[in-house]
Task: structure prediction
Amino acid sequence: MRLCFLVEEQYRHDGMPLDVIRQLGAWGHQVDVLWPGRSLISLSDAIQAGSHDAWVLKTVSGGPGLTLLEAAASAGLTTVNDVRAIRGVRDKALAAVIARGTGLPVPVTYAAARPEELAEIPEAEFPLVVKPADGSSGRAVRLVATPDRLLEPMAPGDCAGGLLIAQPYVPNSGTDLKVYSVAGELYATERCSPLHPAHDVRERQVPLTAEVARIAARIGEVFGLDLYGVDILLGPDGPVVVDINDFPSFRQVPDAVARVSAAVLELARRGTSGRDAAPAAGRVALPAAGRVTGQPNAGAATTRSVTPLPRPARPTAPLGGGR
Result:
């Protein structure tokens, strides 16, 4: 197969997706890489019907990659994830409305263009978690204890004039639960909350409860996502969804590179064959963990054209999304 990856500058040293790109090349697939934000892209040459079997996006929220992915979709090309699903979760305000409207456990959400406007929120709702609607990788997420602290100086670049969202803080242990979906296969991990950096939590894979699994799977169905992550807090009233990310880091997922690579191929084949134009979670069956090895597509072209990549930083990649 021939695939095109859009990789934002922020991820040019990350194992996800660079190791996936290398794995696909090692399996005999042709992989082209575009770097929106740091290179000239000839749209008329790069985006044309039949040029690639699928386009895959790994960019920051608000970056130029999503527009390029939408352009590829407009030319009839398959995208992973489905481009309509990506737009729905990249805007955190929109994602909160969609999720809450379908009955998912999401906190009450407020939106404002300026921090001072959030002072109109009833004091009983404080403390608030405030973050940019287009944020990613935990950028500019802060805990505001009282209304008078809304105007405290923020770090440079924390708010570039975009929409802010605010949600009542969900009391928790200081540990976030991150659930990853690799085309229907779910994995739960725990990590330290960005709101409680002093809390000592070892990042590790943990058992997935039936309740959390239902919530995570439902998010894939509602948004039409196949490769995604969900940040969940275990609050006093049960699990609460605080963020959704398309194509996250998949940290602590067993054999993540092989499994994500296999999922990308399967989703590309599905789109190429004309079946299931809007993918949803749970429709792709992958081998059990540790068994995705060798050459998953023996009939694929053996000619490889992989754009030279910098070696990924080790040992781990940054988180794929914010709170």
